[in-house]
Design brief:
By secondary structure, the protein is an all-beta fold. It is built from two helices and 19 strands.
């Protein structure tokens, strides 16, 4: 009697890493929320399925060309490393949408090249309600697109991305912080580890914005496809690539804003370069 022993080897096509893009750059942590992910129905690659775990989504493929599948061998003995080696997979584009039912993170669409375990990273940005602040230190603002002829009101810059770069004069250190506006253009950026003492020896802080003028707020945004905008304080008409950010010492606490002695959230206007 001849006995056969088969070993089933199932390999992942790729692994998506979901990262929290809000706050200080370089300190991104995994998104542990239970995300709802929907792939586009017209993907060129068929037989894809996702297995979700905290912070990652594993991509499985049930349909592969013969040349990209592990090959069966009937030779006796243990399989060699060459026989078990993963065939090279043709890269493919994965497109879809992701949302967080808890509301901690804003929804987004995505388009990433996948395959051969390239481990693509996709950043999600916290909603205003989901933003964690340290000692209430944050930079807030409202973003509006410059009103165009025929428009009765300035349209909100829904889902725009904001980046703050702070350069310290004393040490030469540079800190970058990121956040995303909500559907109404309001943003709240946490500035963790910045303090009055750090800025007392001199600093420069500039805000830049990326947005999608065609975004009405109803469709899922793709932050990776947004483009740089020019910025101005509302009704000033003076646009530039960045907006200067001021810092004040309020009761020994750091307060950031765009206008000295600011008592309300400033509105910034955007237009395309």
């Amino acid at each position: 009697m001849i006995r056969f022993k088969e070993t089933l080897i199932r390999q992942t096509s790729d692994v998506i890493r979901w990262l929290d893009g809000t706050g200080r750059e370089g300190q991104q942590s995994p998104v542990l929320s239970a995300l709802q992910i929907e792939l586009d129905s017209d993907l060129p690659v068929k037989g894809l399925s996702l297995l979700h775990k905290p912070g990652i989504s594993i991509i499985w493929r049930s349909q592969l060309p013969d040349a990209e599948q592990l090959q069966r061998t009937e030779a006796p003995g243990r399989a060699t490393e060459t026989q078990m080696a993963r065939p090279t997979e043709t890269p493919y584009q994965l497109k879809g949408t992701v949302r967080d039912p808890s509301g901690t993170f804003n929804p987004r669409s995505f388009s990433k090249n996948c395959g051969n375990n390239s481990y693509p990273q996709i950043a999600l940005y916290r909603s205003a309600a989901g933003t964690r602040l340290s000692q209430n230190k944050s930079l807030q603002g409202i973003l509006r697109h410059q009103k165009q002829p025929g428009e009765s009101i300035a349209m909100p810059a829904s889902w725009a991305l904001v980046t703050l770069q702070v350069n310290l004069s004393s040490t030469g250190d540079s800190f970058i912080f990121n956040a995303q506006a909500d559907i109404d253009g309001y943003f709240q950026m946490p500035v963790t580890r910045l303090s009055v003492a750090m800025l007392s020896a001199g600093f420069a802080a500039e805000l830049s914005v990326k947005a999608d003028k065609a975004q009405t707020g109803t469709a899922f945004p793709d932050p990776d496809q947004m483009t740089a905008m020019r910025i101005a304080l509302a009704d000033s008409g003076v646009f530039s690539d960045t907006q200067t950010v001021l810092a004040e010492n309020k009761n020994h606490r750091l307060k950031l804003g765009f206008v000295a002695d600011e008592t309300r959230v400033s509105t910034l206007e955007l237009n395309s370069p």
